[in-house]
Every structure is written in C-alpha cells, then in structure tokens.
Amino acid sequence: MNLAQWLVRRAAVSPTAPALFSGITQVSDYARFAARARSVAAGLQARGVQPGQRVALLMRNDPAYLVALYGIWMAGAAAVPINAKLHAREVAHILQDAGVALVFASPGLDQHVAGVPVVITPGADFERFCATGPIEQIAARAADDLAWLFYTSGTTGTPKGVMITHGMLMAMALSYGVDVDPVSGEDAALYAAPMSHGAGLYNLMHVHAGARHVCPQSGGFDPAEVLMLAAHHGRVHMFAAPTMVKRLTDHARAAGATGEGLRTVVYGGGPMYVADICDAVDHFGPVFVQIYGQGECPMAISVLSRAEVADRSRPGWQARLGSVGRAQAAVEVRIEGAAAPGDVGEIMVRGAPVMPGYWNNPEATAQTLQDGWLRTGDMGFLDAAGYLTLQDRSKDLIITGGSNVYPREVEEVLLQHADVAEVSVVGRPHAEWGEEVVAFVVGEAAEVELDALCLSQIARFKRPKAYLRVESLPKNNYGKVLKTELRKLLAD
Question: Measuring CA to CA, which residue among 199, 201, 112 is closest to residue 162?
Fold first, then answer.
C-alpha cells in the first residue's frame, strides 16, 4: 500500500483539522495538506517523473518538506532525503548514485545541485511547480516498493543507499503505536531534529492520527524555541539525539522552565549517559522514551518505555537505564554466538522493518544481510529479561550531536595534504555533543590548512575539532593502527 493513503484518508475524515505549522502559525489544515501534495504529484508527472524514480529532498525543516514528501509518494516515486548540512561534493555523490530525477531544495541549498532539475521550496518556484495539479488518483505501490532511499556511510566512509520500503515504514509506524507511544489527533509532532533522518520518519504515525506538525521557524534545534513551542501547542512529541536532551535540560534548568506542553521526547541515535537521562527525568518528569535503530532497520530495533526510563524503584534500575530496552514488536533480536544471557556478540535483527538491501550494492548487501538477519555491526548483550545493552558501537563510528562521522572518510581527506604522512581519527567524549572528532596527525601540516582542506570536501560537523601531533601511530603486528591505544591517550 502507498503510505500516502494515510494522508488521503485523514484529509477525508478530518479536513479542517489543523495540520501544518511554522512556529505558532498554522499554514495548512489536512484538506489543504493533501491537496497540495496532490499538486506536487501532478507537477512531478508533468515533468516526466515515473513511479519508482527517485526525487531528492535537500531541505531544511519546513512544512513544505512534508508536502513535497507526500507528493513524491503520491506520484509513485521514492524520496531521497539529504541532510541539509552536507558538503556539495557529498550531495553530488548521492544525487548521482541514486539517479535522482528532480530535487526539491530550500532557498540557498540549490547551489549544491548541478545537472539535475531543481525546484526551490518553498517560494514562487514551488508555487509555479504546483500550478498543474492536483492529481485525482495516487499511484499504487506494493509493500516492497521503495519509499525512502536513506544514505548512510559504511565503515569505509563510502555512502550507501539503504532501501526503505513502504512496508518497512508501515511496520515501523504501527510498532511505534504498540511499543513506543500512542498518538492521537490532539498531539503535535515537533521537528527540531533534521527531517531527513529519524525525526522525519516519525511524521507517519502523526499523519495517520491527524496530529499537528510543527516546524520551528529557526529550521532546527534551539532549546528556548522548543520550550516556547511546547508551551504554546501542548501535547508535543519530538525526537531528539541524546545531546539535544542534555542541552534542553541545561537550558530549562537555567531559565527556570518546567517543560510545560512536552508530552513525549523519544531519544536515540547515540549514547545517552545514565546521569544525563536521570537529570532530564528529574527536571521534566516521565516524558522520555529511548529507541534503538539503524537506517537498515529504521527506529525499530528496541525500546525502553517511559515507565522504565523513569522508574528507579526496582532493583537493577541503573543497568536497565543503561540499556536500550527490549525488542520492538515487529522484530526479533539475537546476539551472534551467545550461549547464555550476558554473552557479548554482534547484535542481529530480523523482521518487517529490516531493509531488503543497499541500493545498487549487492556486495555490501550480502555482507550485511545473512540468512534473513541484519548484521548491525554493533556489539552488545541480552540479559535474562530481554534487555539489550550496547557494549560497543561499530568500532570506529563517531556520533557527534546525533550525526554519524566515519573516521576513514575524514582520514582520506586529510591524507591529501602533502605534509601529512599518517593520520588516524577517533572520537573524544564531549559534554554537549556526546563526542567530538579528533585527528592524530603524523606530519608538519598547519592546522589552518587541514581545516581548509576538510571544509572544501566534507560537511563542517565532520571536521576535526582538534589535531594532535604524534611521532608515529600505534600499530599491531600486522600494521593496523590501534585506535584503542589512541582513545587511551585521549582518556589520559
């Protein structure tokens, strides 16, 4: 089934229900939301976009994001959401690899696009694009048809397109209502994290329920703005990286704000320290739910409920709070090679939300999907009650502010400098961002030159925040750099 049917049905049942907001200003009810999406679909069809083709969203958070997304689905095409913070070179790779037919881009981001038709969204360009609509009949889609092509870097730093189908997203959304948080038409989804990632995926259950969708006017996460919008709209749900939760707590405590109107904050995408979530619950109350997922199984591997996050009365609560909860209803989770509870191994997942594979990458697909199981690359263990604890993430992955940075991608850029003999990139704990990127450099290159090199080729958030000069890098007998030793140096 085409997921856009959820919007069509909601618009028929609740046409005047408030739907899309920019800050505190309503810009659309559900009838107009659906009609505008139909016009986007008509515009795509008029430009020759066929079912199954890919259309990119290079946009900051804005109500028009959801209009464009549902229009893409109504036309039978697949969305390719792209992080608006990416470097133009990274954007170009995704557009080429995905074979994108057209790009919806926020004003100013269109300069990152070359060789592909661009529609500036929102604005007069977007209005002209929608002038041919609306379509009457939305395209039929099967459960295994591509809905969302999500690009995530592998351990080599090469971006891979995760094929997310209509069926996967339906399983994720329905599992959300069962395991994570019930949604009603009285609720409001607040998009403070990038809509190109998990926050955007969470629109589905809110469209299905007829809830409100609120995009901050800042286009991103500002703690003061989030608290103001929560108080104004009430019954607010939002997805947040752990670093966002910490910043929100720190700001609220300093400002004397109670978090009025915050109903549910789902956190995930990186490590959450027990002390930090305890502080957040102490200040805001039992509004927090933790989820664990990957692009390959979006938002749908495990969940730690709000009651479990807030409860400190039962024995072992600290260990439970340090876990990522128990398997969600739509998946099975096991630990590769584990003979008993507590044995550490690679976390394996299978079920309806698991991807069918990577876009045009059968080799990576074969390595990641084996006998129906997704190899997550994360190490962890299950206890006797089924709680999953991450022992270690994929060995080299750095998560800074909820965004993934793969060291080799940064290392390959730095090694282009003539005065860099060797380099190794690791993550260093950071109080605000969770981790920050640090480069150990063998060579005489100036920091300002290394910074300029990185900024010319990769996104700013991937740039090292420190360059530490060393005479040599620690290696094992096979010549492999021992990043564990480098991390020990940072800890010391």
Answer: 201
Domain that holds residue 469: 398-491
Q: Over the stretch 191-209, which tens digit does the pLDDT of each residue have? A: 999 999 999 999 999 999 9
| pLDDT tens readout for residues 426-472 | 999 888 888 999 999 999 999 999 999 999 999 999 999 999 999 99
Rounded distance, CA 220 to CA 461, Å?
Answer: 15
| 104-128 pLDDT per residue, tens | 999 999 999 999 999 999 999 999 9
Among left, alpha and beta (phi > 0; psi -120 to 50; other), residue 6 is alpha
CATH of the domain at 300: 3.40.50.12780
CA 431 to chain CA centroid, Å, is 21
Same domain for 328 and 418, yes or no, is no
Phi, psi of 151 (to 5 degrees): -95, 125
Q: Residue 30 falls within a domain, yes or no?
A: yes
* Tokens coding 480: 């492999």
**414 in the same domain as 308:** no
What's the predicted TM-score (pTM) here?
A: 0.85
H or E element in which residue 439 lies: strand 434-443
Residues 427 and 374 in one domain: no
Task: Return the ∠ at Cα 244 (arms to 239 and 245), rounded to 5°.
Answer: 80
Q: What DSSP character marks residue 250?
A: H
